[in-house]
Amino acid sequence: QVQLVESGGGLVQAGGSLRLSCAASGSIFSIIPMGWYRQAPGKQREMVASITSGGRTDYADSVKGRFTISRDNAKNTVNLQMNSLKPEDSAVYYCRADLPRNVRYWGQGTQVTVSS
Length: 116
Description:
Blueprint: E1 4-7, E2 10-13, E3 18-24, E4 34-39, E5 46-51, E6 57-59, E7 67-72, E8 77-82, E9 91-99, E10 103-106, E11 110-115
Parallel strand pairs: 2-11
Antiparallel strand pairs: 1-3, 3-8, 4-5, 4-9, 5-6, 7-8, 9-10, 9-11
């Protein structure tokens, strides 16, 4: 089993920064892809950033150049550094782990609110 716990959300002014962290349990962490997703009120959940076990990253067009995903396999954590935040970045952010056989685990989410 895998358990994910997000932290680091909060209220920030436009142009500011936040760093989200996802703490994961399980020995499989180091070899599985991880990702950050977000969902705003009235909108569908969308992928923000992902990272493979080898460190390859992918980003949504809307956050390229502003967000950076990273992982620390020794600490079983994946992070999302968010800079130059905009009001449209406001959402609940979720951490996801992709296990074999298309099994996915989600964290409980952390709220990010960016004021204009």
